[in-house]
Amino acid sequence: MGQLDTSRAVGCELCTQDGGILIVRTDKLRVIRALDEDHPAFYRVIWNDHVAEWTDLIPENRSHIMQTVAKVETVLREALSPTKINLASLGNVVPHLHWHVIARFDWDARWPAPVWAPKQREVSDAASRLALPLTQLDAMLARALQAG
Questions:
Q1: How far is CA 127 from CA 2, 98, 108, in A?
Q2: Which of 23, 48, 100, 103 is deepest in the core (most CB within 10 A)?
Q3: Which residues pair with 101 in a beta bridge?
Q4: Residue 103, Cα to own-chain centre: how many angstroms?
Q5: What does the pLDDT look like over 106-148, one tens digit per residue?
Q6: Which domain holds residue 122?
């Protein structure tokens, strides 16, 4: 493996912006809620430094990011009782390792297809179908993540 560029870069979207509604930021990573009207409980765990691949992280940091992903998934499952949780690490465009954690429901616009597939149906105001308001869900996530 070559030398990794872990610097913050001017012009890098995820170095200059949070990438969504910020839930928690630490020195290593942040958790945001993506703004997706069709999938309102769509979160990302984003590594702050430029690291493209999970195996570029030292084992301790691999464990840290995956424990964070697990906490986000656990809160979504407990608070929303979704049909399924989708986890993905795609990140082909930005040089920041990140995991998508998406609560999916059998009523959502693309179910059972992936979130990037064409819509299967129109769903108006999907956020109102959740078991609790997004601001309350965000606060629950923040508490769980800050608790360690």
A1: 44, 23, 10
A2: 103
A3: 43, 87
A4: 10
A5: 999 999 999 999 999 999 999 999 999 999 999 999 999 998 7
A6: 13-146
CA max distance for the chain: 48
Please tell me whether the overall predicted TM-score, pTM, comes out greater than 0.85 for this model.
yes
Helix (H, G, I), strand (E, B) or coil at 32: strand
CATH number reported for the structural domain that contains residue 114 in this entry: 3.30.428.10
Q: How far is CA 148 from the centre of its chain?
A: 18
Residue 37's identity, in one-letter code, is: E
* CB crowding 55-93: b at 16 or more within 10 Å, else e: ebbeeebeebbeebbebbbebbeebbebeebeeeeebee
